[in-house]
Amino acid sequence: QVQLVESGGGLVQAGGSLRLSCAASGSIFSINTMGWYRQAPGKQRELVARITTGGSGITNYSNSVKGRFTISRDNAKNTVYLQMNSLKPEDTGVYYCNAVRAYVMDYWGKGTLVTVSS
């Protein structure tokens, strides 16, 4: 099992910044990818950004956050971060950390709420 614990959510005004953290523990060997998803009220969960854990870390982002959000990792701390800048009200939602292990096993954190006021 892999346990994921998110932190860093909160209330921020439009144009502001937040940094989310996700610490992984447990059977973290063979984790291939870590990432962030979000779910806005009444909408489906969607990918925000993800990063591979090996090598230089390949990243990909949803079009809606490109240029504003940056995902990074600290393998020594088994932690992934999401730096969110120029936040918009439409970025509001619950942000979930995700880890994929052995390419097929999905793990999720409990989520952290981000609220962006206009």
What would your notes on this structure say?
The strands form two sheets. Strands 2, 4, 5, 6, 9, 10 and 11 form a seven-stranded mixed sheet that branches. By secondary structure, this protein is mostly beta strands. A hairpin with a 3-residue loop joins strand 9 (93-101) and strand 10. The protein is built from no helices and eleven strands. It is globular, with a radius of gyration of 13 Å. Helices cover 0% and strands 58% of the residues. The mean pLDDT is 95.
Number of strands: 11
What oligomeric arrangement do these chains adopt?
Answer: single chain
Largest sheet: 7 strands, mixed
Low-confidence stretches: none
| Helix-residue proportion | under 10%
> Tally the helices: what do you get?
0
Which structural class fits the helix and strand makeup? mainly beta
Termini gap:
40 Å
Mean pLDDT equals 95
Query: Looking at the structure, what is the overall shape?
Result: globular
Strand content: over 45%
Order of helices and strands, N to C?
EEEEEEEEEEE
Radius of gyration, in Å, reads 13 Å
Topology:
Elements: E1 2-7, E2 10-13, E3 18-26, E4 31-39, E5 46-52, E6 59-61, E7 69-74, E8 79-84, E9 93-101, E10 105-108, E11 112-117
Parallel strand pairs: 2-11
Antiparallel strand pairs: 1-3, 3-8, 4-5, 4-9, 5-6, 7-8, 9-10, 9-11
List keywords for this structure.
4-stranded antiparallel beta sheet, 118 residues, mainly beta
